[in-house]
Amino acid sequence: MVWVLYAWKLHLDEGDYYAKKLTFTTFALFHRDIYSHRYFYVTDEEGNMVGYALSVWIVIDKDRRKMVKIPSPVKEVYTGGLDEILSSRQQEIVNALDPAPLKKRKNVDYTHEKTIELRFQDIDSNQHVNNTVYIGWAMESLTTDSDEKFLIENVPEDMSIVYKKEKLPGGNVLVKTEQKDRHSYHEILDEEGCLLSIVEIKWKKRKTDGI
User: How confident is the model at residue 61, as a pLDDT?
Assistant: First the structure.
């Protein structure tokens, strides 16, 4: 049995963290013997929280490729080091992030479609596409001149992603996107049309600081 990242959600208060000293803190919660929720938050040098995230993990039977309950021995070891009472900051983050995974929409008005060929660097040590690549694919589907201007002038504020199926090496993916104002919704499919992942991004105006 192995742990698998199923979904995550992210909120960023700022759009530019370059050359800043940041501290990352994490804590975990279990949910119904099926999901493990690991939370993260980021603070700057003054201790201000500038971002937070939730990752949802499941356990799968490696041979059958099926989700299973988190084994009791694993849960007992894992929960032994967890805090029984959340701090006020931890509770704030838990309340801010809905753990329900992103769902596929109906009646989507797709505005973009792009076929992307897999690259060698997209594959991780588990011999499938790395989880971080899907966000890049979603953004790469915005290809017009107006999209380029949009990406320069805006940054992600909230991002959600759910993984439906792993993508093995080779071939292509198709990214179907609906973009409206500062919101984009993306479905990523394999060559057979099977849904691999869903991504949703809420954007906000980039701060220019007078530049």
Answer: 80
CATH number of the domain bearing residue 53: 3.10.129.10
Confidence of residue 211 (pLDDT cuts 50, 70, 90): very low
- H-helix or E-strand spanning residue 140: helix 133-140
Closest to 12 measured CA to CA, from 154, 133, 135, 155? 155
Q: Is the pLDDT of residue 192 over 80?
A: yes
β-partners of residue 200 are 160, 185
Distance CA(209)–CA(211), nearest Å, equals: 6
3-state secondary structure of 51: strand
Spatial separation of the C-alpha atoms in residues 169 and 128, rounded to whole Å: 6
Which residue type sits at 161? I
User: How many Å separate Cα 29 from the centre of its chain?
Assistant: 18
**Percent of the chain whose pLDDT exceeds 90:** 64
Whose tokens are 């530019």? That residue is 16
Does 124 lie in the same domain as 63? no
